[in-house]
C-alpha cells in the first residue's frame, strides 16, 4: 500500500534516500509488516509504502520491493538503507540494480558489541563511521585494527563503503541508520494488534493526520529553510565567526581556523572538509566564504531543505475511503476468494515486545 500523496511528495521534494525494515504483527494470523520510510526537509519521518507478508524471507522481500519499484518507477541516485538481513540485500540488488545499498550503522555497532566486548572498539567504530574525510577514517580505523584485527576484518567483510560515510559512493546525506523506520514501528505498536483491514485504515488515518499537521506547520514557517535546516545553518554560522578567509579567485578561497584550513569552491558547492559535499548544507568554512564574498549561504543549500519543498511534500490531500457500500469494485476483484494464511500460533502467551538485537540490554530508569 502506497498512498499517492506520499509518492507525489517523494518525487518532487524528498531526498532519494529510503530506509526499509520489517516488524512482526500481533493479530490472529501474525505475519510481518514491511515498511519504507524517508525523511522530509524538516528531518521528520515520511512514510512511503507498507506491505504485509508471512515473514522476512527471500520471496517476501522481493515481492515487497518489486511492488515498491512499480509504485516509484526509476529514481536517480536512489540510496537504500537497511539492516544486514540477507533477504533484503538479495532483493535490493535484484529489484533496484542501479541503487546504492548501505547498511544501518546502529545495527552494525550492536553486532560489534556482541562479537567483540572491548568498549574502545565500539568508540573507534562510531568515530570511523561518522568521519567525513578518508584520511581521518584511515587513521581511526588503523587504531581499531591495532587493538583487534578480527574486529577490523569483520567490518571490512561487510564492505566499508556500505557503512562509512567517507567511503560512501552514493548520496546518503545525513541518514546513517534505519531508526526512522523503527520509530514508525513504535508509533504503530498498538495498530499491529489489529486485523489487516483495520491496520491498513489505521495507517491511512495516521498519514492523513501527519499531512494536515505538517502542512500547517510548513505554512507557518517564515524562514527560507525549514526549521531544522535553519537551525543547522545557524549553529555553523556561529562557528564561522572567527574563521579567516584567504581568496584564491572570485569563487574559491582558503578558510583557516586554529591552524586547520579548508578550501571552498562556491561554484561546485564543495569544501575539502567534505561536510558541504556530503550533507548538502554549507559547512562553517563555506559560510565564512559566503560572508567574505557577500553571498547568501541559503542559496547554496540543497533544494530539499527549503520551506517551499516542505510545503510541496505535503501539498496533496489524503481522503478517507468512504462507506464500503459506495465502493465500485471490479467483478474480477469481487469474485476473488481470499483464504486465511496457513499459520499456526505458537503455544503460550503471544509475544508483544520485539526481540532485542545483539548488544542491546534492558534500560532501567530509577527516580533519584
Q: How does the SSE layout of this entry go?
A:
Blueprint: H1 4-13, E1 17-24, E2 32-39, E3 45-53, H2 58-72, E4 79-82, H3 86-95, E5 100-103, H4 105-115, H5 119-130, H6 134-147, H7 149-158, H8 160-163, H9 179-187, H10 196-219, H11 227-239, E6 244-247, E7 252-257, E8 260-265, E9 270-271, H12 275-279, H13 284-293, H14 307-313, H15 331-334
Parallel strand pairs: 1-4, 4-5
Antiparallel strand pairs: 1-2, 2-3, 6-7, 7-8, 8-9
H/I helix tally: 15
Q: Helicity range of the residues? A: 40-55%
Radius of gyration equals: 23 Å
Number of strands: 9
Based on secondary structure, the structural category is: alpha+beta
DSSP strand content: 5-15%
Strand order of the biggest β-sheet = 3-2-1-4-5
Helices and strands, in N-to-C order?
Answer: HEEEHEHEHHHHHHHHEEEEHHHH
Domain SWIM-type: 262-294
Biased composition (Basic residues): 342-354
Region (Disordered): 339-368
Protein name: SWIM-type domain-containing protein
Amino acid at each position: 500500500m502506497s498512498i499517492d500523496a506520499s509518492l507525489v511528495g517523494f518525487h518532487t521534494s524528498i531526498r532519494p534516500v529510503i530506509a526499509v525494515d520489517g516488524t512482526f504483527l500481533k493479530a490472529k494470523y501474525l505475519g510481518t509488516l514491511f515498511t519504507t520510510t524517508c525523511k522530509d526537509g524538516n528531518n521528520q519521518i515520511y512514510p512511503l509504502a507498507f506491505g504485509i507478508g508471512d515473514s522476512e524471507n527471500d520471496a517476501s522481500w522481493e515481492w515487497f520491493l518489486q511492488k515498491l519499484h512499480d509504485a516509484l518507477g526509476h529514481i536517480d541516485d536512489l540510496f537504500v538503507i537497511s539492516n544486514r538481513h540477507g533477504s533484503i540485500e538479495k532483493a535490493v540488488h535484484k529489484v533496484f540494480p542501479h541503487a546504492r545499498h548501505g547498511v544501518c550503522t546502529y545495527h552494525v555497532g550492536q553486532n560489534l558489541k556482541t562479537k567483540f566486548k572491548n568498549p574502545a572498539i565500539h568508540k573507534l567504530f562510531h568515530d570511523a563511521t561518522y568521519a567525513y574525510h578518508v584520511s581521518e577514517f584511515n587513521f581511526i580505523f588503523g587504531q581499531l585494527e591495532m587493538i583487534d584485527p578480527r574486529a577490523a576484518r569483520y567490518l571490512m567483510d561487510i564492505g566499508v563503503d556500505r557503512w562509512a560515510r567517507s567511503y560512501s559512493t552514493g548520496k546518503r546525506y545525513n541518514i546513517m541508520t534505519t531508526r526512522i523506520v523503527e520509530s514508525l514501528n513504535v508509533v504503530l505498536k498498538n495498530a499491529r494488534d489489529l486485523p489487516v483491514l483495520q491496520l491498513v485504515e489505521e495507517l491511512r488515518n495516521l498519514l492523513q493526520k501527519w499531512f494536515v499537521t505538517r502542512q500547517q506547520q510548513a505554512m507557518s514557517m517564515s524562514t527560507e529553510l525549514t526549521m531544522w535546516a535553519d537551525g543547522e545553518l545557524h549553529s555553523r554560522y556561529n562557528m564561522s565567526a572567527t574563521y579567516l578567509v584567504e581568496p584564491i579567485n572570485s569563487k574559491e578561497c582558503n578558510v583557516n581556523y586554529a591552524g586547520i584550513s579548508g578550501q571552498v569552491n562556491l561554484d561546485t558547492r564543495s569544501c575539502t572538509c567534505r561536510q558541504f559535499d556530503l550533507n548538502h548544507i554549507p559547512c562553517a568554512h563555506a559560510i565564512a566564504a559566503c560572508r567574505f564574498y557577500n553571498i547568501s549561504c541559503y542559496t547554496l543549500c540543497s533544494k530539499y531543505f527549503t520551506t517551499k519543498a516542505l510545503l510541496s511534500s505535503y501539498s496533496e490531500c489524503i481522503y478517507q475511503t468512504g462507506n464500503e457500500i459506495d465502493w465500485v469494485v471490479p467483478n474480477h476483484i469481487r469474485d476473488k476468494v481470499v483464504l486465511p494464511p496457513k499459520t499456526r500460533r505458537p503455544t503460550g502467551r503471544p509475544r508483544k515486545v520485539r526481540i532485542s538485537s545483539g548488544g542491546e540490554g534492558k534500560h532501567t530508569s530509577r527516580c533519584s
